[in-house]
Design brief:
By secondary structure, this protein is of the alpha/beta class. Helices cover 44% and strands 21% of the residues. The protein contains 13 helices and twelve strands.
C-alpha cells in the first residue's frame, strides 16, 4: 500500500508546472556574469546581485537550472560568441552581439559621469567635461556605450585623457587612490562601490546617455529558438507582475528605482512580445 502511495505522489509530481517546464530544459544553462556593482558581484566566494536574482526567478518559473560563471567584461562576450557559455546578464544590446546571440530585455540602464571634482568646476554633460576639464577618465574594457558617449571618449583618448582598465573594481580603486579623475557608470555599479569605499564623488547625469534596455543575451549556437521563447515568456510574466522592479527595490531607494524604470513597462513588454 505504501509503495502504491509513493508511486502516486511521484506520478503527480511529474505533472506539476515546474516539472513540465523543466522537462524541456537543457541539463544546465551556463550563465556568464561580470563585475557590474549591484548588478553582479562576488562576495565571500559566491556570486550575487540583481542579475543573479533575476536568473533565479527565471529558473523558478521555467524549471530550468542555471550555473553562473565569472568573467572579465570583455571576455564574457568572447565566451558567448564561441558558444562556451549560453547566456549573459546585464547586457546592453549592440549590432555586433546580435550577430551571434538573441536579446531579451528586463530593465533599463543609463550612464552617469562620476567625478572626484579635484578641479572644483561644475559640468553639465560629458561634452562639457571633455571641452573644459583636464582630468583623466578611467573606463572598463568591453562595456558598450551610447554613440554620443563613444564620440566623446574618442576625443578624450586622442588627448591622452582616457585609460581603459579590466573592471570596475580597478576603476574605483584608482579613484580612491587619486589616480583617476572620474569614470562612467550606472547607478547599480557606482551605488555599490561608493557605499563600499566611502568615496565622495559628484554625479553628473549625462544628456549623451538615453535610457537603454539592459537584459539577457542567449547564444544562437547553444540555445534553441524554443528555449529562447520559454525564457522570454518568463521575463514577460515577471515584467507584467513587476517582479523585476521588486528585485531592484531590494538594492535601491525608491527614487533610484523610479528613475531606472521611468520609461515604464510598455517598451519592455513590446520587446518581449516580439520574440520570434
Amino acid at each position: 500500500m505504501r509503495r502504491k502511495y509513493l508511486l502516486l505522489i511521484a506520478s503527480l509530481s511529474c505533472w506539476s508546472p515546474a516539472a513540465r517546464a523543466g522537462a524541456d530544459c537543457p541539463v544546465v544553462t551556463r550563465v556568464g556574469v561580470s563585475d557590474l556593482g549591484y548588478t553582479s558581484y562576488r562576495e565571500q566566494g559566491r556570486i550575487a546581485g540583481i542579475a543573479i536574482d533575476v536568473a533565479h526567478e527565471m529558473a523558478r518559473r521555467t524549471g530550468c537550472k542555471f550555473a553562473f560563471q565569472w568573467y572579465p567584461r570583455q571576455r564574457l562576450f568572447i565566451e558567448l560568441e564561441a558558444g562556451r557559455i549560453d547566456m549573459t546578464m546585464g547586457s546592453m544590446r549592440t549590432p555586433e552581439r546580435d550577430a551571434y546571440a538573441r536579446y531579451l530585455p528586463y530593465a533599463y540602464l543609463q550612464y552617469d559621469l562620476l567625478l572626484t571634482q579635484q578641479d572644483g568646476r561644475q559640468y553639465t554633460s560629458l561634452a562639457d567635461y571633455v571641452a573644459r576639464g583636464e582630468g583623466r577618465l578611467n573606463v572598463t574594457r568591453g562595456v558598450a556605450y551610447d554613440a554620443g558617449i563613444e564620440t566623446q571618449l574618442a576625443t578624450l583618448a586622442s588627448h591622452g585623457r582616457l585609460e581603459v582598465v579590466n573592471d570596475f573594481e580597478t576603476v574605483f580603486g584608482k579613484l580612491a587612490l587619486g589616480r583617476a579623475a572620474g569614470t562612467l557608470a550606472t547607478p547599480p555599479i557606482y551605488g555599490k562601490y561608493l557605499k563600499d569605499s566611502k568615496l565622495r564623488m559628484t554625479i553628473v547625469p549625462l544628456p549623451e546617455s538615453a535610457p537603454r534596455f539592459t537584459g539577457i543575451y542567449l547564444s544562437k549556437q547553444t540555445i534553441s529558438p524554443q528555449l529562447h521563447q520559454r525564457y522570454a515568456a518568463a521575463l514577460k510574466a515577471m515584467t507584467s507582475e513587476q517582479s523585476v522592479r521588486a528585485i531592484y527595490a531590494r538594492y535601491f531607494d525608491d527614487a533610484t528605482v523610479k528613475r531606472t524604470f521611468r520609461n515604464g513597462q510598455a517598451p519592455l513588454m513590446t520587446a518581449l512580445s516580439a520574440v520570434d
